[in-house]
Amino acid sequence: MSSRIVVIGAGPTGIGAAYRLHELGYENWNLYERNAYIGGHASSHTDARGFVWDEGGHVIFSHYPYFDEFLNQMLGADYLEHERQSWIRLLDTWVPYPFQNNVRYLPQDALMECLLGLVQANQENAYEDTQNFGAWTTALFGEGIAKYFMRPYNFKVWAYPLERMDKQWIAERVSKVDLARVLRNVVYARDDVNWGPNNKFKFPLYGGTGEIYRRAAKRFQDRVHCNKTLVELDLAKRTVSFQDGSGDTFDAIVTTMPLDLLIPLLKPRQSALEDAARLLQHNGIFTVGIGLEKRIETNWCWMYFPESNSPFYRVTYFHNYSPHNVPDGRADIYSSLMCEISFSPHKPVDRARVVDETIDGLVNSALLQDADRARIVSRYVEESEYAYPIPTLERDAALARLQPFLMQRNILSRGRFGSWKYEIGNMDHSVMQGAEAVNFILNGAPETVWS
Ligand SMILES: Cc1cc2nc3c(=O)[nH]c(=O)nc-3n(C[C@H](O)[C@H](O)[C@H](O)COP(=O)(O)OP(=O)(O)OC[C@H]3O[C@@H](n4cnc5c(N)ncnc54)[C@H](O)[C@@H]3O)c2cc1C
Question: Is-contact 201 430, C-beta < 8 A?
Fold first, then answer.
């Protein structure tokens, strides 16, 4: 008899697992999702005025042919392609991304500070010896760039002390700053951006990012069960139980719910594992959508905000991704700004004030004029309690206690908060983790994304 597989969660990882099971023609499985809708953090919602919002700006950075093909299957011709244009707002000016290569846009004093810091960091060459993300940032980029961009921006995103974060998740991907290149860009007034023809991304024409996963789920909808919240996982009986009193049996599980919430659901209770799970840290975000009855024509995609005159770390011109993200597809008269604001015990945010503070921040950052306040026709807020799994100094030791226990029992905890690894937490990674978990369960094929 074939193994019974249960998938928990209908975000990109759970949908990736389900898609693979369906593709293989496998029959003995079910997917259970807590929400009434599909997509998890990659879902999209339409507000009462007809504006479509993602949960924060979602851009596809695909690293995998399998994911590319999945996307082709889901979208067909229903997508638009954009060049990634991103900018940073500070000191009343706009600097193209990446910041360090374009410091020439800064006012003179700040430019000098950034260059001197970079020269000193280059001489000291000490970034490999640093022990945490905060120290690594300053040692690699120098005091100036750390002060103006890297440190304030990263605190705004992570809402967590940088000195208590590991550096490994980023240090493996970022190499030493090329000082000669930075100096050449300043002296010859050269723009050095990494957008251009090779940096395009696809975005669904209709329905926002969530459309990808809604379409996937339609292919196997008889196996997708919404409004099912997992409340117990019995290790001895090999059963799962849901809040509504229903349940299922399993031989293997792919679970994508937050790992720290899964562990207390195990029966019998595992107190040592619960201690380890408590070490896992996350932040939350508010997505604040501001819909305007005003045309904003731009080819910019998103902007970063390190300064304290706005609550958000990033704003996306969402009407630019698809005209169907605004009411009736009328991007000629409407526009939409999607703003992301992180929160945590280290950086509390008052939900009652977050929309007003966001609008003030948009005016302070020159994205809106004062007069535009009267043109705001939609104010959307979504709170995501789990947004970024934080790569803290304790994370890997905690995962090393949790994952082997689960793996020995054929419980594969995968995805953004299932694996708790930000560095493999994008949509392409997530779909791949789901598909590879299935390949592992059915054929013992090694997982290459999660390992
Ligand atoms: C602010 C933000 C910006 C992002 N930007 C990008 C981007 O630009 N590009 C990109 O590729 N990716 C981006 N991502 C990441 C993308 O959203 C994730 O890759 C993806 O959502 C992770 O998929 P997942 O299935 O692992 O987890 P989730 O999407 O979290 O799905 C998990 C599912 O499990 C369900 N669940 C939880 N508990 C239970 C329970 N007890 N019982 C049953 N079901 C349960 C949840 O409801 C959810 O649907 C972003 C994420 C955020 C938060």
Answer: no
